[in-house]
Amino acid sequence: MSLEKKVAIVTGASRGIGRAIALEFARQGCDIVFNYNKSVDAAEALAKELEALGRKTSFYQVDAADFTAVQAMVKDVKAKFGKIDILVNNAGITNDKLIVRMKEEDWDSVIDTNLKGAFNFCRAVSAIMLKQEDGRILNISSISGVVGMAGQVNYSASKAGLIGLTKALAKELGSRNVTVNALAPGIIETDMTGVLAEEYRQKLLEQIPVKRFGKVEEVSKVAAFLVSDDALYITGQVLQIDGGLAM
Ligand code: NAP
Questions:
Q1: What pLDDT shows up at residue 21?
Q2: Residue 146 in contact with residue 238, Cβ under 8 Å?
Q3: Residue 156 Cα to ligand 1 middle (Å)
Q4: Which domains are present in the chain?
Q5: What is the pTM of this model?
């Protein structure tokens, strides 16, 4: 098991890609701490599954966008687990609209959750990882941040921002054995993409060379590789997992 005895924080793990990442890391021997925003029952169910895999787990109802609450959560994790080896910034939302209809709060909520949320966690774990002289940070961006998507100026900006954060932080932390990478998934089957109109889904499918949407496991297994010691010489990179959609 390549993540044996590691401790990971996975943000927004109650559902979707974050949940799959938490379970995959746990299968590979990692203890898991996660936060979520609203889905209490789903969070409790995940904690039970992680414990059934024989892992230590702890979970927090903490809004990723809340700077003070995130700092307190990470402090508590360090006190309980003694170290933090891995951080996956996965918590994210969409609020799609054309710009002419986008309200200020539509912009703010997406930037605050997706981009400031990642900053909040990176800010909290960086000092710990620098001191440990060891750490892995993985940010879940999107192809929307690579190529831009109409109807998503808020989301595309947040995900492009995450790519800039990834590269800058990789340069800051690299000399102390801390790697920082990003994944840019295409269309993955989760609640987030389940709400897309059928007509739009068909249009997207036509543009995907492999002619299907991705599965959460196709993201979580790559995530596990990127935070493992097999990927120690990879930092500042953005890896697309999109069936060829954004070439
Ligand atoms: P999802 O099924 O909607 O799940 C989102 C998760 O994030 C939930 O567990 C949710 O928790 C949590 N979350 C949302 N806001 C939060 C907040 N303020 N604080 C803490 N947790 C919060 O979405 P997904 O498809 O798995 O997406 C996961 C990540 O992958 C996101 O960053 C998304 O942008 C990115 N992504 C997804 C796709 C895709 O096709 N699905 C493609 C590219 C990138 P609650 O349920 O408790 O609110």
A1: 99
A2: yes
A3: 15
A4: 7-241 (3.40.50.720)
A5: 0.99
